User: Which sequence fits this backbone?
């Protein structure tokens, strides 16, 4: 496993081209309801993500995932009510398999449990998306079951696997120091709150 330095910071409009470089690829969108994106669709996604940080109160927090000073992914926490959050992430195929999504997802947990004092954080993924299911297990989530034909994507109605972790199951000590949970103090401060984490080899 390679070693990575992974940073999370709020997504900005200037990130759109980097985001588009994976959002336009069929292999990235294979199990998603969206894509492959046109440039206009990616611009709209990024603008909505940036706007979401400024809403009052904000309920959607979209980060750029930075590794080696390049934006290599995006990651998101959505509040689903006062105590529950949902996470999601995507990484450029050129850096798949280096643990970047796993570290990213860990930071999202820290951000949700520390900054938003959540009780439960969940994620869903297509059962065919083995890499994402593995990431969710690696960060300590429990597989809770399969929702039948819950998502309509290009190849039809697809099942969706549900994973979740509860606050008392989360171990902050597992997180590298300087995670998003500690550093993004005020979510409305777009452009601040860069998180710098050295991944363990
Ligand atoms: C899913 C995704 C985020 C994973 O990113 P990544 O940075 O490569 O993930 P990581 O390297 O942290 O971990 C991947 C794990 O899955 C494993 N894996 C990869 N492909 C696999 C497969 N076909 N079957 C089983 N395991 C697989 C890897 O071996 C690794 O596990 P390990 O550390 O135990 O060896 C990336 O493939 C992606 O962006 N996909 C498109 C968007 C997407 O599907 N997002 C998730 C929506 S639910």
Assistant:
């Amino acid at each position: 496993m390679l070693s990575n330095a992974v940073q999370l910071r709020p997504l900005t409009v200037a990130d759109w081209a980097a985001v588009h470089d994976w959002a336009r690829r069929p292999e990235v969108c294979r199990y998603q309801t969206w894509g492959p994106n046109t440039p206009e669709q990616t611009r709209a996604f990024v603008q909505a993500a940036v706007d979401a940080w400024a809403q009052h109160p904000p309920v959607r927090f979209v980060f750029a995932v930075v590794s080696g000073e390049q934006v290599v992914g995006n990651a998101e926490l959505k509040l689903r009510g006062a105590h529950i959050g949902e996470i999601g992430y995507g990484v450029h195929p050129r850096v798949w398999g280096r643990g970047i999504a796993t570290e990213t997802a860990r930071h999202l947990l820290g951000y949700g449990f520390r900054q938003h004092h959540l009780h439960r954080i969940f994620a869903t993924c297509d059962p065919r998306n083995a890499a994402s299911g593995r990431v969710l297990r690696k960060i300590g989530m429990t597989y809770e079951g399969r929702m039948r034909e819950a998502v309509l994507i290009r190849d039809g109605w697809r099942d969706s696997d549900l994973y979740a972790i509860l606050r008392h199951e989360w171990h902050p000590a597992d997180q590298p120091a300087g995670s998003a949970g500690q550093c993004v103090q005020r979510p409305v401060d777009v452009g601040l709150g860069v998180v710098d984490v050295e991944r363990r080899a």
